Recover the amino acids of this structure.
C-alpha cells in the first residue's frame, strides 16, 4: 500500500541571479532586477514529497518528525538566513534560480533518505513562481 | 478529452495514534505527543480528484454538486466532529494516521464512484503535513 | 535535467452555464444556480506548468517574465473582466465550465509555446472547485 | 467579558461598475475594464464581525450556526450566483462597488441582529482588494 | 513611535462543548455535533498582537523570538496535542469555546508580558470561525 | 459614509539587522541569524488601508488603480529587488526591521495621499511575523 507524504518547511535567503561568464550588462539584460548587484531575497517554501509503503505497525510511510528534522539539517541549516551566492558551497558556481535550488535540495535529501523511498521537491520562490523536481 | 476535477471539503476530528499491540510506553516513544491518551484533534482538508472524459452536453467531467454530496455522505458523515478511534468502525483496528485516513477515504469513495472515473485523494492533517493516495 | 516550473495568474470573468440545445427549464434543472440567465462570476486562478530542460547559462527552464507575458497576452487579454459567454469567440459554442476553460487555455498557450516544452493547466474557479488538463 | 467573533462566508456574483448619469464613454474612462458592458464577476468573501458579551452558559457570544444562517439568508440568498446590477433591488440605483456592497450588507444584517451586538463587515472582492465598514 | 507586532503560532487540540449543569440532551440540543461525547478537534491558529514603542537601538517593539518562546511556554505547552476538557486546568470548569480559549490565552500571556505593552489575541478555530479579545 | 479600503502589494528584498553603534559580536548576540553579514531576504506583503468617505458618483473611497500605482511608485520602486541596507536612502541609518519598514512606508505614502484620508500600514515579513502602524 504505497502512499505519498508531504512535509512543508520554509527558509529566508538572499540571492542574486548572476552568470559569472557574462559581464554586468549582459546579466542585467537577461535577469533584469533579479540581478541587482546587492542582492534581494525571498521567503522560500519547500514541500518534500516522500513515497513509500505504509508501515502497518505505525500507519506511517515515514515519521514526519524525522522527515522534518532531515529537511532542517540538510536544507534549512544550509540556506536559511543565508546569502545563497556568498554563504553556500552549493551555489558558488551554480546560479541560485528556483530550478537549481530544487535540484540541489533533491540531491542533498536523496543522499540521506532510504533508497526504498521515492523523493520529489516542490519549491516556492513566491506564491506565483514555483518549481518541481524531478518531473512527473 | 480527459480532464481531472478537484473538490475540497473539510472535517474536524479527534484522534490518537495508538498501536494496540504495544504498551503505553512504546506508543509514547514511537508516536510522541500524537499518542496523548485523551486525544487531540485536527481540521482535516480532503481534496478529491476525479479524472474522466468531459461530457459535451454539460461541459462537466462530473457534476461538482454530486461529487460534493458524495464526499459529505461517505466522509464527512463518518468522520466530522467524531473521535476517529472511538466513534468509527473504520479505525477500530487501524491507526488513524493521515496515510490510513486517505486510504480509507479512497476505498469508501471508490465503491460509490462510477468505474469510468479515476480517483485520487489528498488529505491535509495540517497545512504542513499532508498525504496522497494512490501514488502517481 | 528536466524541471517543471509553475506561474500563477488570475482573471475575473462573468459566465453562465447554458446549453443552447436545451430550453431554459432543462438548463436550470441541470446547472442549477450556475445557469442564472443574467450571469454570475468568479475570480479565476490559472496555474501554468511548463516542463523542460534547465538552460545551464541562465538556470531557467523558461524566463518567468516571458511566461507571465504569454499568459497575459493569450488568457488575461481574452478573458479578464469579460463575459465568457458574450465577449469571447472561444465560448460562443462551448459551455464555459472550468473544464472547458482549462482545455481552451491549454490550446491557446500550446500554439505559442515552443514544442520542446510540456504544458499543463490548473484552473481554480473557486478555492474548492478546480480542474487540471491534460491529465497525468 | 466582551469578545468579537468572526464568520466567513462567500458568494459568486457578476457586476458592472456603471453610473447611470454618465454616458458609456465616461463610464469607460472612470471605471476602465470594470465597466465592461456585458459584466465580469468575482468570488466575494464576506467576514462578519459580531461583538458582545460571552454568555457564561454557552461560552458563546453568539451561536456561529445562527450567525452563518443569518448571513446565508440575508446576503447569499440575495447575491450568490446573481448579477448584482440586474438581479437585485439593492443595486438598482447604487453602483455595486465593494464599498457599497459592504454598506448594503451591513444594513441588511443590522436589521436582523440583536441591538446588543456591534457589527462590522469586511468584504474581499479579490485577495488584493477589500473593504471594511463601519470604520474603526 | 508606537507599532503593533503580530506573531502567529498554532496548536492541535481535542475538545467538546459541554455545560456540566445540563444533561446530555440539552448539551446536544444547544451545541449540536460540537458536543459529541467522545470529542472532536481542531488545528488552532493563535495570533498574538503586542503594541508598544519601537526601541531605537534594535528597531524592535519586542524581540519576536522572545514573543514566540513566550507563546510556546504559556499556550502551546498547555494546549497542544491535548484534550482541552480533560488535560487542562483552565477548562476544567469553563467551556472550551473559541471565545473562552482566547480569554484564557490573553490572561496567561498578560501575566508574563511587561505592563508597558498592550496585548490582543486573535484565535482561529477554523478558517471560517475566529474570535478576538479584547475588543477594539 | 466612511469606509476603509485595503490594497495588498508585495516586494522582495534583502536586508540585515545591524546596529552600527555595536560591534559584530553584539549584533550577532542581539539579532541572531537575522544579522548574517551577507544578508538574507524576504517576500514582503504590504497592505495599505485608506479610510474616507464614499464618493457617491463612483461608489469609491479612492480608485484602487490609483492607490496601487501610488504604492508601486513610493514603495515597490524603492524597495523591490533591492538590498534595504545598501540600496536605499531610507535605511542608511535606520535598522530595516519590519517595524521600521512600516513606519517608513507610512511616511512615504502619507506625503502623497490627500489629507482627507486616514492611512494605516500592515506589513508581513513572513506569514507568521507582521506589524501595523499607526496603532489603533
Amino acid at each position: 500500500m504505497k502512499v505519498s507524504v508531504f512535509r512543508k518547511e520554509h527558509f529566508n535567503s538572499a540571492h542574486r541571479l548572476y552568470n559569472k561568464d557574462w559581464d554586468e550588462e549582459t546579466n542585467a539584460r537577461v535577469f533584469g532586477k533579479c540581478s541587482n548587484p546587492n542582492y534581494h531575497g525571498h521567503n522560500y517554501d519547500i514541500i518534500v514529497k516522500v513515497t513509500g509503503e505504509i508501515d502497518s505497525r505505525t500507519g506511517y510511510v515515514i515519521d514526519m518528525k524525522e522527515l522534518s528534522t532531515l529537511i532542517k539539517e540538510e536544507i534549512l541549516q544550509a540556506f536559511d538566513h543565508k546569502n545563497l551566492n556568498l554563504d553556500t558551497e552549493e551555489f558558488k558556481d551554480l546560479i541560485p534560480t528556483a530550478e537549481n535550488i530544487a535540484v540541489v535540495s533533491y540531491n542533498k535529501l536523496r543522499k540521506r533518505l532510504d533508497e526504498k523511498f521515492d523523493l520529489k521537491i516542490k519549491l516556492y520562490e513566491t506564491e506565483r513562481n514555483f518549481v518541481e523536481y524531478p518531473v512527473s
Remarks:
- Chains D and B do not touch (no CB pair under 8 Å).
- Chain D has one domain: 2-133.
- Chain D has a mean pLDDT of 98.
